[in-house]
């Protein structure tokens, strides 16, 4: 029986010494370049995968220094969180836009001046034949009339959120909806063919919800993304995209396209309140500072 040979000369390392110094140097160079090119290929693969599936990056203020500002600009960053609810119409939701104390103060100043809400009438319409379309109570108040300064603070924040100057905004319309009260679907912009020539136009609306509503009272967009947009739509129906009122939250939507024409999907309304009360402060924003 043949015996197995033994590895002599110190085992494996002994084999390296038998190769000679030039061979060892060549092998070292070979393995160096093999590792270098291998790591390069692996790095390129990781970069490709990360570019195809980029991770969201959170902006941290300390990473950036504010730029030199213009005379009318700010010298610090402004962060106002929002969620895009829809692109048709362009609608954005702002959680925690106002504090509970601010909301309570606005309700308190509005309560003493409430009156039945009215409508802008189209040709052929009268107060009598439009009964039931808008059944809330409301009042108008400008920030200059508010001695507490709360409405001015809200107005400045709306200005930053929309990038529409405060001077383009109408007075706040503070509304109260009680059980069963509603506002049928309508447009905030005024169609000249129905309302006559307009010196200016409402381009956007900002709704600040002043109270929670136990049930009902949603702001609805029945034509969102082209849904239900046919001649058979019942303007009293509460369908489509619905935004539930929550105290302190804001809702911004645009009534006009960027080219200045009315966006049909901006049709909206207020669903009937089923349980509780709904308080909301509406700020209409126009394309001109001077308006009727």
TrEMBL record:
Cofactor(s) needed: L-ascorbate
PROSITE patterns in the record: FE2OG_OXY
Domain Fe2OG dioxygenase: 167-287
GO BP, one annotated term: root hair cell development
Regions that span the bilayer: 12-37
Catalytic activity: L-prolyl-[collagen] + 2-oxoglutarate + O2 = trans-4-hydroxy-L-prolyl-[collagen] + succinate + CO2
Record Pfam families: 2OG-FeII_Oxy_3 (PF13640)
Any GO CC annotation of this UniProt entry: endoplasmic reticulum membrane
Membrane topology: Single-pass type II membrane protein
Region called Disordered, residue ranges: 52-75
Subcellular compartments: Endoplasmic reticulum membrane
Root EC class: oxidoreductase
Enzyme Commission (EC) number: 1.14.11.2
Location (main, coarse): endoplasmic reticulum
GO-annotated molecular function: iron ion binding; L-ascorbic acid binding; procollagen-proline 4-dioxygenase activity
Annotated keywords: Dioxygenase, Endoplasmic reticulum, Glycoprotein, Iron, Membrane, Metal-binding, Oxidoreductase, Signal-anchor, Transmembrane, Transmembrane helix
Family according to the record: Belongs to the P4HA family.
Name this protein carries in UniProt: procollagen-proline 4-dioxygenase
Lineage, top ranks: Eukaryota, Viridiplantae, Streptophyta, Embryophyta, Tracheophyta
């Amino acid at each position: 029986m043949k015996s197995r040979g033994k590895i002599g000369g110190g085992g494996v390392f002994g084999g390296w010494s038998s190769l000679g110094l030039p061979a060892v140097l060549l092998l070292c160079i070979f393995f160096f370049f093999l590792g270098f090119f291998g790591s390069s290929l692996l790095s390129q693969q990781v970069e490709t995968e990360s570019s195809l599936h980029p991770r969201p990056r959170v902006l941290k203020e300390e990473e950036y220094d504010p730029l030199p500002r213009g005379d009318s600009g700010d010298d610090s960053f402004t962060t106002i969180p929002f969620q895009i609810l829809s692109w048709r119409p362009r609608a954005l939701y702002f959680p925690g836009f106002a504090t509970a104390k601010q909301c309570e103060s606005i309700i308190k100043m509005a309560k003493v001046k409430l009156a039945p809400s009215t409508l802008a009438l189209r040709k052929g319409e009268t107060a009598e034949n439009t009964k039931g379309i808008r059944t809330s109570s409301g009042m108008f108040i400008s920030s200059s009339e508010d001695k507490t300064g709360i409405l001015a603070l809200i107005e400045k924040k709306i200005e930053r959120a929309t990038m529409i100057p405060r001077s383009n905004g109408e007075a706040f319309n503070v509304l109260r909806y009680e059980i069963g009260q509603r506002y049928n679907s309508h447009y905030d912009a005024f169609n000249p063919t129905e309302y006559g020539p307009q010196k200016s136009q409402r381009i956007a609306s900002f709704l600040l919800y002043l109270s929670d509503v136990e049930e009902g009272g949603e702001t609805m967009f029945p034509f969102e993304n082209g849904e239900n947009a046919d001649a058979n739509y019942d303007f009293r129906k509460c369908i489509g995209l619905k935004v539930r009122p929550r105290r302190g939250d804001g809702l911004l939507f645009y009534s006009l396209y960027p080219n200045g024409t009315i966006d049909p999907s901006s049709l909206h309304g207020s669903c009937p309140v089923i349980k509780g009360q709904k308080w909301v402060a509406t700020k209409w924003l126009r394309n001109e500072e001077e308006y009727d």
